[in-house]
Write a structure and sequence with these properties.
The chain has 250 residues and is an alpha/beta fold. It has nine helices and eight strands.
C-alpha cells in the first residue's frame, strides 16, 4: 500500500489494495463495455491550460455564489451511494471531510446514514440528490426531510429510466449486504417514468432550488429552463448506467 498519498491515482491504488474486491468493483466499474468510462478520463486528459503571464497572482479569489449562498470554490462532492459499504462511518466521514475542506456535499438518496445525522456532522451546506419514487407521498416526505435537515438544493436525477447493465459488477458478484439500510429509496420498486410534469409537481412544494442532474442535450437544457428548473447538472451518471454516451466534459 502507498505509504503517502499525493494524487488521485494514489488514492485509487490504495482503495484497490484495501477494499474488498466486490466493493472496489462497485465503485470503479462502469456500464457495459465501459467505453464512456474510458472516454470520461480521456476527454479530461485532453483539456489544456493556456496560462497568462506577468500577472499579479499573490491574492486569488475562487469564491462563487450559487442560489444566494457564497461558496469558497465551485467544487462540490457528487452524490455517491452505499458509503458504509466502503467505510464503517460512511457518509459521516464524508461530511466531516467536506466540512474540513469547506465544500458542499451532495447527499445521495442511496445514503446509508440518515440525513439528519449527516447534517449534524458538517458545518458546510448540504444539497440532496433525489430520485422520484413510485409513491409520491414517499417522495414528498423525503424532500421535506431533506429541507428540514438544512439541505439548500435538490438535485433531481433525470437520466436513469432504468438500471443499466453493469457487467463488471455482475462478474464480481455484487449484492448489497442484507444489513445495509438505505433510507430514501424504495428498493425493489419499479421505477416510474419521470416526465416534465413530475418536475412541475416537485416545484409546487419544494422550498429550495430544484436542479436537474443528468442533462447532456442542449435541447433538454432549454426545456429545463422553460419548465422552471433552477439549474442543470451536465452528467452521464459517471458512465455507470448507459454506455457510449459522450464524455461529460465534452
Amino acid at each position: 500500500m502507498t505509504a503517502e498519498m499525493f494524487s488521485l491515482s494514489d488514492f485509487e491504488e490504495c482503495a484497490r489494495e484495501k477494499l474488498p474486491h466486490v466493493a472496489y468493483e462497485y465503485v470503479a466499474g462502469g456500464a457495459a463495455d465501459e467505453l464512456t468510462l474510458r472516454w470520461n478520463r480521456e476527454s479530461f486528459d485532453r483539456m489544456r491550460l493556456r496560462p497568462r503571464v506577468l500577472q499579479d497572482v499573490s491574492e486569488l479569489d475562487t469564491r462563487v455564489t450559487l442560489f444566494g449562498h457564497e461558496l469558497p470554490f465551485p467544487i462540490l462532492l457528487a452524490p455517491t451511494a452505499y458509503q458504509r459499504l466502503l467505510h464503517p462511518e460512511g457518509e459521516l466521514a464524508t461530511a466531516r471531510g467536506a466540512s474540513a475542506a469547506g465544500a458542499v456535499y451532495v447527499v445521495s438518496s442511496y445514503t446509508t446514514t440518515p440525513i439528519e445525522e449527516i447534517a449534524r456532522a458538517t458545518t458546510q451546506p448540504l444539497w440532496f440528490q433525489l430520485y422520484v419514487q413510485p409513491d409520491r407521498e414517499f417522495t414528498k416526505d423525503v424532500v421535506q426531510r431533506a429541507e428540514a435537515a438544512g439541505c439548500r438544493a435538490l438535485c433531481v436525477t433525470v437520466d436513469l429510466a432504468s438500471i443499466g447493465v453493469r457487467n463488471r459488477h455482475q462478474r464480481a458478484g455484487f449484492v448489497l449486504p442484507p444489513e445495509m439500510k438505505v433510507y430514501y429509496m424504495m428498493l425493489g420498486a419499479q421505477r416510474p417514468p419521470v416526465t416534465w410534469k413530475d418536475i412541475d409537481w416537485l416545484r409546487s412544494f419544494a422550498r429550495v432550488p430544484v436542479l436537474l442532474k443528468g442533462i447532456l442535450n442542449p435541447d433538454d437544457a432549454e426545456l429545463a429552463v422553460q419548465n422552471g428548473a433552477s439549474g442543470v447538472i451536465v452528467s452521464n451518471h459517471g458512465a455507470r448506467d448507459l454506455d457510449t454516451l459522450p464524455a461529460t466534459i465534452d
